[in-house]
Structure formats: C-alpha cells, structure tokens
Amino acid sequence: MDAIRWTEAQEKAIHVVGRDVLVSASAGTGKTAVLAQRCLARLCEPPQQTDVDRLLVLTYTDAAAEEMHSRIASTLRQSYRRSPSSHLRRQLLLLDAAWISTFHAFCKRLLAEHFYLLNLDANFAIVDPDQQELLKSDAVVQTLEEAWSEPVLAQGISILLTGQSLYGAGGFSRQILALADFLESIPQPQRFFERMEEFCAQGPQSADWHRLRREQLQRVCEILRQARQKIDYARLLHDSLGLGGWLAQTFDAYQETAERLEQTARRQDWQTLYQQLQSLELKRFPNRPKDLDEQTADFVKQPLKEVKSDWQDLLNLAALNPVSVQLEGESVQLQMHTVLALLKRFEDNYGRMKRRIGALDFSDLEQMTVSLLLEQPQIAEKLRQRFDYIFVDEFQDINAVQKCILDAIRRPDNVFAVGDVKQSIYAFRRSRPELFLEALSTAQEEPQDPLTAQRLDLGVNFRSRPEILTFANTVFRRIMTCQTASMDYDRRAELVCGRSDAAALAEEEPLPVELVLLDEESDETAEDDQNEETSEQQADSGESTLPPAETLSPVQRQALWIAQRLRRMVGADTGKAEFQIFDKEAGCRRDVQYRDIVILMRSMVYRANIYAEILRLAGVPVVSQTASGYFAATEIADLLALLKVLDNPIRDIELAAVLRSALFSFTDSQLARIRLPADAAEPKPASFYEALLAAARRTDDPLAAKVRQALEQLTQWRRAIRLGSLSDVLGAILDQTGYLAFVSALPNGRQRRANLLKLHQRAVQFEHFSTGPQAVSLARFVEFLEKMGQEEQDWAPAQPDSASENAVRLFSVHRSKGLEFPVVVLAELNTHWNLQDLDQLCLADEDTLGLRAVDPQRQIRFPTLPWQVLRERKRKTALEEEMRILYVALTRAREKLVVTASRGRSHCSRIVRECSLSAGRALPSWKLLNVNQPIDWLLYGLGEEPPMREVFLDGPAAGPTFFTVECVDSERLQECSRVIEEAGRRRQTPAVPSLTPDIVRQYQPVIDTCRQRLRWVYPFEEAARLPAKLSVSQAVRAIDEFAFIDTEESLHCQPRAILDKVGRKPSVSAAQIGAATHLLLARIDLKQKPDRKTLESLAETLVSEGSISPQAARQADFDAILRFFESELGRLVLQYPNNVHREWPFTVSVSAQQAGIASSDERIIIQGIVDLLIHTKERLILLDFKTDAVSEEEIAERAARYVPQIRYYALAVEKILGRPVEQACLYFLKPSKSFPIDLPS
User: Fold this and answer.
1) Cα(first)–Cα(last) distance of the chain, in Å?
2) By C-alpha distance, which of 749, 724, 748, 726 is closest to 739?
3) Is residue 1216 within 8 Å of residue 1148, measured between CB atoms?
4) Strand, coil or helix: what is 259?
5) Model pLDDT, residue 269
6) CA distance 810 to 615
7) Which terminus has fewer CB within 10 Å in the chain: N or C?
8) What is the sign, positive or negative, of the torsion defined by CA atoms of 918, 920, 924, 928?
9) 257 beta partners
C-alpha cells in the first residue's frame, strides 16, 4: 500500500477525522482502495488510532466484505513484519471479531445478541430466497381464501378483479406481493398502514389528497411552461432554417394560447383552465412551401405537435378533471380499504408461517433491527459508544430502513460514507440514491463547523484511456442535469484520466471509441420471442443455421455485425490483432484476445441466446452470463417432467416427454403404438399412463418388454423417493441412466452438465426448507417448481467454470457494476425502456398508495389522483435510473469501447441537425425526457461533435476528435448476413459423393417415385384455402389485393374502452367522427324533418349513453347531415319513413364463384351491414354513407374503390329479400353529393 501514489483528494479522504466525511467517487477512481486505506489509517495512525473491533464497516455484498477483510488483514501482517508492536499484534488477534460485513450480516449479529428482547428463537434461521417465494405464495393464497369468506372484502375483491386475473404473472396476487415487497423497504411499516387507513377513510376531503392535488397542479404549471419553451424551440428551428413566414402565424397563435393558459394557471382558476383546454381549437398547419421537403417540415412542426398533445393530455389529470372527484367516492374507498386489509392480512399470515418454522427473511433482519434500536434506546447508545468509526461502502445504494439503522447508531462525527450517485442502478432492490444526494447537499468542501460533514470528490480515473473518459464526459455533460437526473454533471462529476501511460496511448491508432449505427429500426415485438425460441431449438439440436439474410431481425443483424467486428479485432482471419491491451497479471502489453472482450446489454432477456448462437456460428467463442432461461433448457425440462411423473403418473404430456427423452429413448412411432389400442376388443385407455399399462400387458407386441422395463424403473424411483432423500434419488438417477454424461457430450455440454448439477444442488437446499409438515416431499418440490413457472419466474442457468476459456463474455450492465474489462462492446442501445411497472394496478411509496380503480357501474378502470401522482414520480425515477445505467455501461472499458445500436439514418440525421442548429445552447430537459431508448441520449450528447456532422450532415470534420462514427447501410448489413450464412452452410454441409452412372441406374426407380410424389397436386387446393366466413371488407380484399380498406363499418359500435374516460387520451380520430356520424344517421327520427337542435339533442343522448365520445359528438358534421335530408335521396327517406331499414345487418350464403373469389362451387358465408335500404312501390334503393373528406372532382375516383363492396350488398339483399336492387348509391357527406353505382344485371 505504501507504493501507491494517492491523489490530493484521496489523501484527504484517508486522513480527515473529527467529522463526518462523504466521498463522491466517480467510476474507476479507486474508492474501494481509499476505503480500505482509511480503515488501516484508523488502526495504525496515532493519536486517532483505535482497535479493529471498534470499527464498523458496512458493505452491500459478501464479496466486498471479504475483500475488505482480506485487504486489512494483509496490510496488518505486512506492517507487523516490518515493525512488530503489541498494538498491531492485538489487531491481528481481534480481526476475526471485527464488524466487517454486509448490512444484513450486521443486523443478524445484532439480533443474535439481543434475541430475548424481541421474543426470537435463539437459533433462528434465514430463509433461502426460493423458500421465501414458496412461503409468500402460500401466504397470499391463504390470504385471498380467507378474504373471500368475508362479505365486505369479497365485494371489494370482486370489484378489483374487473378485467384482472387472480393468479399468474400479471394477476392480482402479484400486486399484493409487490406491495409487500415495498413495505419491506420502509421503516416502521405500521405507520404507513395507519396513515393510509386515515387517508382511505377521508378520501378527497383529506389533507393528503389535497397535498397530492397541489403536487399535480404544480406539474400542470410545469407542463404549461414547457409548452411555451417548445414553441420557442420550434420557432428557433424555423428561423435557423430560414423558412421565412411559413409558420409565423401558427407560432403567434400557439404563443397566444400558451400565455392565456399560463395566466389562468397563475390565477389558480383551475375550472376555467379545464374549460379552456376543452374548448381549444387549433388550426391546421399551413401547407409547406414547395421547395421544403416533408422531412424538414415535420422536423420543425414536431415540437408544436407535442404542445398540442400536452394540452390535450392535461384534460386527463385528476386534479383538473371534475369527473375525477365524482368517481373517487365510496367505491374507491372500498377498493383501497380492501387492498390495505389484504396487505395487512398477508403480512400477518406470512409472519406466522416464518415464526412457525423459526426463520426470518432478510427484510426481517433490517425491520427488527430498527425496532430493537428505536424501542431499546440503551442498545443504540451502547452501539454509538462501541464504534469509534463507521464506514459505509456504496452509500448510493442504501435504502430507507438501512438509513434509519445507520442514523440510530452513528455519532455526529464518525461516519465515512463513499459512493457515486451516478452509479446507483438498483432501484429494483429499493435503493434510494436521493438519500445520498440529500447528505451531499448539506455537506461542505471546507466546513468550519465540526458537526458539518465534509464533502470530497474523487474524479481521477485510473481505469480508462483518456478518449473513453472524454466520450463519457461529453455525453453526460449535455444530458445529465438536475431536471433529468436530479444532479448536474459538473466539474466535480467529470472524469479525469489518471493513467500513467495516457500520453503514450494518445498516439496509438485507431481511436479507442467507436460509435456504430446500423441503418435500420429495431422491431421489439414477438419477433424477438421467435428468434429466441429458434436459437434455443438450434442449441438443443446442435444445429447452427440462420434464416435467409433478408429475413434476419435487427437483433440478429446487430449480433452478426458485432461478430465480424470482433473477428477483425483479434485478427481471426489475418493472424494479427488490431491493437494491444495491458495484461495486469502478466504486467505487460499483449495482443487483444477474445477473453478480454465483454458484450454488455441493458437486458439479456430475448437476446442472450440469439447473440450466443450467432457468435458461435461466426466462429467467435462465447460464454453467456444470463439471468434467466434455466427452466427452458432441454435437460432441465426432461428432469422436471420426470419428477412430475414420479409425483403423479397421470400426467400425459410429462409422461410422454419422459419416455421420448434420452432417459428412455422411445420414438414417436412407439409412443403412437402405445397410445392406440392393440385391437378393437381392447378398450380405449382414458390416459396415457393407462395406455402404458395396457401396452405392458400385451404378449404379442415386441415393444411390451421395453414398456415393462420403463414402468419398473419409474416404480423403483418413485418408491426410492418416498423412502429416502429426494436429492439422493435425483443423483442416483443421473448416475444410473448416464444422463449426465449424455448431455455433457452434446453441444454446449459444459453448460448442460452445470445446469443438471445445479438442479441437484437446489434439491439438496430444498430438503433443508422448513415450510410445513410436507416440506421435503417430492410433491412439495414439484408444487414449488410449478408455482415458479406460473409466476413466470426463472433461475439463472448455472455458470460452468470459464475463467481459463478464451471466449467473449455476455453480461448485463447490472452484472458488470463494479467490474472493468479491457474491451467493452455496448450493444442494443436501441432497446426501449421497460416502463411496464408504471401501469400496475397499485402503486405505492412512503408517501401514499394509489389505485387504478374500477367504476362498478360502467365497468371501466380509471386512474385515481394518488395513482397519477405516483406514476409521474416513478416515471421520473425510472428515467433517472436508465441514465445512470448508461453511465455505468460507458465507464467499464479500459482500452476499447464499441457502442452499437440499430437506428435509422434519417432519425440520427434529424437529431444531429437539431443539435447543430441549437449549438452552444443547453438541451431542453423536455427533449431529453421524451426519448425512449438510450441511443437517442447518446445522439443528443454527441450531436455537436465533428464526426457526427461529417457522417450525418456531410459537414467538415473540423476540430479534434476522440471517437469514430460509422453508419452501416442496409447493403452492407445484407452482405454481412450473407457472409455469416455462407460460413454456417460450409460448416454444416457434408461433402456429397460423385454420382456414377451405375448408381443413377440403381436408384432411378426410387428417384422417379420421389419425383412423382413431390409433383403431386391436391385436386381441391383452392377449396382448402377458402375461409368458411367472410365480412364484406374481407371479401373485397380477397378478390383485389389493392382494394381500399373501409374501416367505417367496424366502428359503428365503439367499445367503451376507447371512449373518453378519466385517464384516457381524449383525442378523436377521423374514423371515430365517421362512426359518430353514422350513428346519428341511424338514430334520427324520420317522422319529421330534422333540424340542428334535433341533432344536438340526439348527440347529447348518445354521449350520455356512452355510445360516442363528447369529442366525436362535437366534431360531427351536423350541417352535412341536414344537407342530406335536403337532397332528393333524403326527401325520399322522409317520404317512406316506415319502409326504411337503417344499419341493416345480413348474413348470406353464396358460392365462391358467385362471390367472385374462386372458381369452385364451395359455399361461403358473407356478413355485412347496409347503411340504408329504402322500399318504395316501384323500386328497392340501397344507399351507403361515406364520410371521406373528398372534393367533388375526386368523387368518381374514390367511389370506384367502393364498387365491389356495394355489389356484395346488392347480392345479399337480392338473395335475402328475393327482389333485386334497382338503384344503388354512395352518398359522400363532405361535398354532399351522391354517386350512382352500376350493378350487374
């Protein structure tokens, strides 16, 4: 340690005493070394030296605690050898009793010392995480069963379950478990219950409700301010591009509206503001100039479109919407009371289960420690006197309960906390980085008061090359602000290179940072699921094939590009690596190897298997550090199926899977023979197990012996498990069958073997669970595994020893925290944020509880005010964490950083152009908070840099550069795909022997037979493709693939879900306006000529019924409807009111030939709805209304699109009524013109 040259800031952090010290240590600044050295200084430097057992060192992982313990022990031994003293000898003797541990281990030790004060079992155990899941699952089931028997709770649950399942991954039970997890992270949860019960009882009259309303109204004011900023920003873009007066009037109109709304908000006249927002009518944008391209026009208009959308969204906020208060009545209070009652009962049941088995979980350790310290102040005082110095590592990851514990045992001058808010990425563990920010805000760099904490910032990075640090600094200096991340990336946060070889490295080529953008947009849909499934199947079968190059997904193509880049990097094809890295173990520089490279991704789900398979296909060795996918592995699925069959043989699917697996090796044909009766006399078995028993009794079937052997083996294993240990029998099965050796010989055999051994280890652990009288039974183990499957939970695949393997590693960013790698490829930065948790049924924080409640009368869900406020808070917190995750990812590399994403060139060019036009100005926070994937943050952060302008704006690359940019076009992507595809084909295709004439003659009959069979055509192929039933629209598209798709008929009856409710976006589409118009025409009283007052009254009725939305009613064209009744057709309708059919539905059977969609006589059903059918004495008239916005000149062209539809209507009317349609017309409401349709005779 003496050889280390500490920086000035590090020296201060090590030696300052007599006050609290808070160290904000950026990535790679040696904070762990500083923490360890400070511990040693307090042990060895008089006069403040102390004994090691009077230090409390708290970490967040066992590995960190062990490393700290090891460092202190090693240094103490070295110091003692150099200068033996009684003090050092005493420290070595006390070291094993030192308080160097995780928070949980500290709490456990404290509770073990004072168990009698908390009525704890002296030998309490800590539940395994899997055991905890099992107990919680049992507790929530018991809770819900008890609640159903109580009328009040049953009523509340039945309302809450509207449109919601009870169990499963997204079920209501998971909401209870999620709230229980939240309670574990707050001190004294009983106070939360008390506060929420009071809030629930008072409802909208409570002080808390009004406080939340004020918070949301502040958000309203913020949105209104941002609207003005967006207008100014759009005007800036407009003027910078020299667009003259194109949008000048539009800007003035928007600006005037924004100022009017802001003035109303400043007066706090919220009712008027709501009315103003409701009545907003903004004119359409003027047509763009002829010399202005559409892309640039949209670029300028986008901020104004966002403003319009923001104003519309304000109508959904409960603080403004008067309907919200009406909805948040007794029903919401009942639902909230139900959730609280269920949560409290779950806590009681879960606590009882743990007490019954004498165990605690990790949250109990913390919560009971809080209770002990607060209820027994003498113990807290004893600890304050016991510890001279308290050290906290990774302080940014502390939660509220841990902070409460720390506050109870600390003195005003003895805490040393080190952390980095920018690296707080564990929100899912309930970390609270704002606690560190609050502490830093009160600390001073040079405090005078001894009770004021001293702040020290470590910014000298000893890990990365200077270009990598400049890259990170440039990005976060522009995007990380108080508005986007609750902190500014200022001088204190910036990274400064402290590597001794920085000057020599600066002369090396190529540049160590590469930004690679694949010119395509990713499609994060079911495609990823399909690719994942395909990759798993290929891995199981040992195959390595790719679909054709043109069908590869963006994820696959990005993986392919990375594979080729890595091959070039290590010189796989040339034999010469592109660059060298410093090998810390060897102490010298050497060529880069695969083992030096790590591919980082925000999330490994749906991607890890794809990347691993494609890298292997490209000849790149890879080790995947995934966090899921264990149960999907074939070898695990086989063993789980076997365990289920041993528990209950009457499981057809599992039994067939076991017999077909390598454990018994039955073929598909043999399984089919087993399932079918041997002859007509043999009864058909009810289950596959009965079929297996019947097959074993057959005397004339050679398969019977194999079946009897399988049944005997299953019986033996079942008996062994009942009499012995589950884990022992599972181990014996693996040994007896040779299954372990079998899977080891398959592709990826080391991984498969490790997976099986992990299952065996889990069985051993499960036998030590104490969850009830049947805790160690096979049935209980199977139940546990099935519940994990139902809840879509998974284990991480076992990790075989790969330390010595020369392979690329796949890591998630979370897994890479605290680590460093010579080369980092940061992939898939186009991955969208996962914000699904924001839309849960229940949201909670220490402040309040919010529901997406149900209106029992209308059977719809709506967000309550607390839910909306909580959602906005959590969205901001989630985006802040995403930015910190990006920071962690960009600061892991030592020598080389490659960043890749799939993003369209046009999108990238737009952002770079935007940055160029606003160069020198700070990026608007609303702009940064509106992105939905990290690559856009990167583009905004780098948009002003010369390489970006050169690639995306074709500008000069003037000025110094520290990174390269490459935009890979589609042609190069296709070529990359074809190269890898060909490589896989060469690796798989065996050599084909040459065919001699003798061989051809020998096999000619077989070839002829095969050719004949392959050329056979099914004679009824056309009929096989015919659907049994078609709507008119589908029938039109069946005969004309370019047919115009008319969606009006499908919108006549709108579902309530799309209508304007609280929490729904009140925008209205042209299709909804058309549907409202059709409904008005269908409901008008024809006995008298309608007028505008009649239409307005009818529209109000339809709105009150929930048939149309208020917005659609306001925008319906009443004048066009009235003009129709002035026309000849309208007068005819009024003349025969009793002979008019409106919205006339029909179902008719016709031949496919008659329908014109095939040449066969197959019958098909056609369904549709005729708008208007008029019976006169002389003729039958068919009329169809169209709300298309067309000019009179365009009517003929537009009508041609509807001709097939009208002819189908006429055919149906004739077949049903037995009378031909003499006249058919289209009536276009916008120009108020009819158009006759010629019908075939």
Assistant:
1) 101
2) 749
3) yes
4) helix
5) 95
6) 11
7) C
8) positive
9) none
Q: How many CB atoms neighbour CB 555 within 10 A?
A: 25
Supply 200's token pair: 């629930």
From the number of C-beta atoms within 10 Å of its C-beta (0-12, 13-18, 19+), residue 293 rates as exposed
- E-only strand ranges, 856-933: 860-863, 893-902
**pLDDT band (50, 70, 90) for residue 1040:** very low
The confidence score (pLDDT) of residue 626 equals 61
284 exposure class (CB count in 10 Å sphere: 0-12, 13-18, 19+)? exposed
Q: Give the containing element (helix H, strand E) for 1230.
A: none
Q: What is the DSSP string of 70-113?
A: HHHHHHHHHHHHHS--HHHHHHHHHGGG-EEEEHHHHHHHHHHH
pLDDT tens sequence across 788-822 = 666 556 666 656 655 568 999 999 999 999 899 99
| Diameter over CA atoms, the chain | 122
Task: Tell which residue, 137, 119, 1234, has the closest CA to residue 788.
Answer: 137
More reliable by pLDDT, 511 or 70? 70
Rounded Cα distance between 119 and 928, Å, is 53
CA distance 735 to 306: 65
Three-state DSSP state, 747:
coil
Q: Residue type at 1221? A: V
Sequence-distant (≥ 6) Cβ neighbours of residue 277 within 8 angstroms: 261, 311, 312, 314, 315, 320
The model's pLDDT over 507-556, given as tens digits with 9 standing for 90+, comes to 666 789 999 999 987 655 434 444 444 444 444 444 445 555 556 788 99
CA-to-CA distance for 554 and 534, rounded, in angstroms?
Answer: 15
| pLDDT for the residue 1050 | 39
Residue 565 has pLDDT above 70, yes or no: yes
Crossing angle for the helix pair 652-660 and 668-675, nearest 10 degrees?
140
Residue keyed to tokens 């079911």? 526
Rg, Å, the chain Cα set: 36
- Distance, in Å, from the CA atom of 1011 to the CA atom of 406, rounded to the nearest integer, reads 81
What is the Cα–Cα distance from 387 to 109, expressed in whole angstroms? 15
In three state form, how does the secondary structure of 206-240 look?
A: CHHHHHHHHHHHHHHHHHHHHHHHHHHHHHHHHHH
Beta bridge partners of 582: 589
Closest CA to 24 of 294, 288, 372, 416: 416
Statement: residue 436 has pLDDT above 90: yes
Contacts of 22 (CB under 8 A, 6+ apart): 395, 417, 418, 436, 439, 440, 443, 453, 454, 455, 456
Q: What is the pLDDT of residues 1070-1080, one digit of tens each?
A: 778 888 898 89
Q: Are 961 and 973 within 8 A, CB to CB?
A: no
Strand 1163-1175 relative to strand 1029-1031, pairing:
parallel
Which has the closest alpha carbon to 499: 591, 597, 578, 582? 582
Q: How far apart (Å, rounded) are the C-alpha atoms in residues 1030 and 13?
A: 77
Tokens 């805000």: give the residue: 441
* Cα–Cα separations (whole angstroms), residue 39 to 95, 1017, 1068: 12, 83, 65
- Average pLDDT over the chain, rounded to an integer: 86
Q: Confidence band (pLDDT; 50, 70, 90) for 957? A: low
Task: With beta carbons less than 8 A apart as the criterion, state whether 606 and 528 touch.
Answer: yes
How many residues appear in the chain? Answer: 1241
Contact by Cβ (8 Å): 752, 746: yes
Provide the pLDDT for residue 937.
Answer: 97
φ, ψ at 549 (rounded to 5°): -55, -40
pLDDT digits over 326-368, tens only? 788 778 889 999 999 999 999 999 999 999 888 999 999 999 9
What are 840-893's pLDDT values in tens digits?
A: 999 999 989 999 999 888 888 899 999 999 999 999 999 999 999 999 999 999
Q: How many CB atoms lie within 10 A of CB 505?
A: 15
Tokens representing residue 162 in the block: 């509207």
